[in-house]
Amino acid sequence: MPFSHLTRTVVFACLFATLPGIANADWFEQERAIMGTSITAEVWDNNQQHAQLCIQKVMTEMHRIDSLMSPFHEDTPLAKINREAGQHPVKTPAELFALIKRSFIFSRLSHGAFDISFASAGYLYDYRKKIKPTDDQLKHVIIDYRQIALDDARQTIKFNKPGMRLDLGGIAKGYAVDNSIKILQQCGIKHARVSAGGDSRLLGDRHGRPWIIGIRNPRKAEGTVLALPLSDIAISTSGDYERYFVKDGERYSHILNPRTGKSAKGLWSVTIIGPNATTTDALSTTLFVLGVKKGIQLVDKMKDIDAVMIDNKGIIHYSQGLTPPGQ
Ligand code: ADP
Ligand code: MG
Fold first, then answer.
1. With CB atoms counted within 10 Å of each terminal CB, which end of the chain scores lower, N or C?
2. Which residues in 24-37 are b (16+ Cβ under 10 Å) and which e?
């Protein structure tokens, strides 16, 4: 659990608290380690107890999604699919079924660059112990979302080939962030930010001015390469610096090319901006596999989606909808 030391509660005092008319309003923020990542919820509210109640609902939602979709805990419905769907159709909770189905949209859009059955190879990697599969092991692995049979009427999932596995690590955090924003809206919150690792969504603005979201420098522990002023939008970054190890001079990072079962190369990071975090999360992973040319081409065809891609020479590439600094 790399971020466990982050478990803490922070309450930020805010400059705006002194403005007339909103004397008691303030920003309230909490950070927790859930789903193997750092979860942050920040809300603007005029009542501390109410703010904390709303933030608590977000954290409860994160735990709920983890217990539905984590492949790591044995008792989740996703773990059951991985254990049994190679032998027989497995009845699947509607919400999990729907997200798996939604993941296929990105698989089709990218001709298989995004594929939740990457996990058939993914489970052979251990990033902490620096373990990777041999070429021989990879020969027997099947990564192909088209071999995942979804039965809509029965809500069952079956693998057409035995030995397959699924992992929603490239989309579930974004989905959890979207649900959290809905929960905050139902709670009466008008301005908020929810982040799960590299996936964030902004509700409203930062009270009268945009949120400023930085894109990290992929080769420095601290520092950003760009700052984007944003409101009411989702933003996700996938990078090769989050989970990786270096062995014999080569970097093995956690995003796999489904065609090879090996770490995708060519990029340091991909940032996607779009209307919801499920989409930006899935697309950041997708473009990381596709590379600059195909990635920008794909995004330029999509409405309301933009991309900033940093290649392995440190050059920044922008989709059509963005104006690079100084232009
Ligand atoms: P994170 O916030 O975990 O860094 P990313 O959005 O960058 O998430 O996605 C990386 C995760 O996506 C991996 O940890 C893995 O769970 C999953 N993944 C890796 N390769 C693929 C792929 N080709 N298609 C779909 N999901 C993938
Ligand atoms: Mg992603």
1. C
2. ebbbbbbbbbbbbb
